[in-house]
Fold this protein.
Amino acid sequence: VCSSDLGVSMQEIAVGASSTSFTAFTDPRTYYVCVEAKLNSVYFTTDGSTPTSTNGHVLAAGAREVWSKNRANAAKFLQNSGAARVVGSPLTD
């Protein structure tokens, strides 16, 4: 189970037909972010490129992964099969 620690707010973003990202996780106590796809799967990239059906990875609906803060800040998301939501919960020391 992932949840935000020490009063650092989690983020939930709507993912649609245009690429979107989290607002940067900047709290210095945050080292990792629990990332979860809700509703539908999403395409994502973390290399600065825009995700598409032929570029990037798929985060399946219901998938939950722990990413570094830098990776979460670099991530861009695009809907796969329909409008989705992605949650990022900062994990602090």
User: Anything to note?
Assistant: The radius of gyration is 12 Å. The longest strand covers residues 30-38. DSSP finds one helix and seven strands in the chain.
